[in-house]
Write a structure and sequence with these properties.
mainly alpha, 7 helices, flat
Length: 193
């Protein structure tokens, strides 16, 4: 948490673009949540009621929604990449200024490759964590919350039944993961011997 608070001073000058990127993320996630209603209309109105006009409306709405979603995803990607690049430039500039103020004894003790690795690789990893993973976390979190709300809105009984199956799926996933880890450990010890 302390790291994100320290990063906040680098992000603050670009906060307006970051807010626009978050807005694009929210809108793109909202477009994803439209799909359950489309499927519901396909089943209820097209298949059951044989409404061909509704089929055309649904087909056009799918195309429109995917175009809008694509525009919001583009805006989110562009703005988050822009903010990430600007923050990385600022951090690298500050590191460079700090390196210029250090004594020659520091450079005698530390290898040039190690210092260059800190400046390039570590800052790039920071950008990945800050931009790509943060966007993924926000997007997937919004989709999860919106999906639960949409499921409850469409059919709360079926949603509760779905939640009842969740512990069974989670337990089977944990058992499978443990077996995979044991197999990987055995395989690694066999290869080392």
């Amino acid at each position: 948490m302390n790291l994100y608070l320290r990063l906040l001073k680098y992000i603050r000058p670009y906060m307006h673009r970051l807010m626009m990127a978050i807005l694009c993320t929210v809108m793109a996630s909202a477009c994803n949540l439209y799909l359950p209603w489309i499927i519901k209309d396909v089943v209820d109105k097209v298949l059951v009621q044989k409404d061909t006009f509704m089929l055309y409306v649904i087909a056009i709405s799918i195309v429109v929604i995917f175009i809008i979603r694509g525009l919001f995803f583009y805006g989110q990607s562009y703005l988050m990449s822009w903010v990430g690049q600007k923050v990385v430039i600022d951090i690298r500039g500050e590191i460079f200024r700090k390196l210029q103020r250090l004594s020659l004894a520091f450079y005698d003790k530390n290898k040039t490759g190690t210092i260059m690795s800190y400046v390039t690789n570590d800052v790039a990893a920071l950008q990945t964590a800050m931009v790509e993973k943060a966007v993924e976390l926000v997007t997937e979190g919004l989709v999860l919350i919106g999906s639960i709300v949409a499921m409850l809105w469409l059919d709360w009984k079926l949603t509760l039944f779905t939640f009842c199956t969740f512990p069974v799926v989670l337990c089977s996933w944990i058992i499978s993961a443990r077996k995979s880890v044991k197999t990987a450990v055995k395989f690694r010890s066999v290869r080392q011997n």
